[in-house]
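Support request, please re-run this one:
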Amino acid sequence: MTLPDVQRPARPTMTTPNPLPSSNAPAGDGKSGRLDGLLGGKKRVRMRGRTPVDPATLVLSVLVPVYNERATIDIILDQVRSAVDVRTQIIVVDDYSTDGTREVLTRLRDEGRIDVLVFHDVNRGKGAAIRTALAASTGDVVIVQDADLEYDPNDWPALLQPIIDGKADAVFGSRFLSGPHRVLYFWHSVGNKLLTTISNMFTNLNLTDMETCYKAMRGEVARSLRLTADRFGFEPEVTARLAQAQARIYEVPISYSGRTYAEGKKIGWKDGVAAFWHIAKFNLWLK
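Re-run finished. Output below.
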């Protein structure tokens, strides 16, 4: 299979940070689980100063959950390696594939194209695979990358920039902010927007695409979140956890090349129905 040409984007530039809060600022309420405690002590002011990351030393952990993606895993890992001019840590978790994906992944690891490879001994779901990858990560920033070709790693610079600038703790890549996308299922788009609206009602965020795969997060923030969802409930759960932690969240447009079910799309209507339950559960009961 001929690999597509992937243009290496220029390294993101870092803007000048705002002054940090002074050390004599009044102490906050000291509640646990707030990002102010994670990123520099107890909460002192309503808005934190910027917390920039130097791109010259930044390590990006790429979390790749895989299930039966033999036809695309080789291509996507090549795209991942050349997407941005920063050091990367590629962590692949195979969720008990049965189509020969495991043999391909073993070869890619032996060729040095995968840094960490974990095999689940049973199929546990996408959320469980992401948790396994996240636990193995050490990067300053983490990003989830599906093993299919629906999401393009060339969009990473836009996702990373607000974190590098120190303005964001998490950045969501939205498929509904005017980026180019393949035209597919009308009712899927209606369902996505409905789920995002209901999630926003609980979290008091104004996201346009809660269900997006592309969520880049500061590493220490992502690893501090209490995540439990095994399947596609990961998306509403991580959104709820970030909102509860008062994370600074940005949203940027991304491209999207969705698949049909004949091409291997896995999420179905049952997962959409379950997402309503996950939104309520993670925002009302399992806080």
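The radius of gyration is 19 Å. The domain at 55-285 is CATH 3.90.550.10 (Spore Coat Polysaccharide Biosynthesis Protein SpsA; Chain A).
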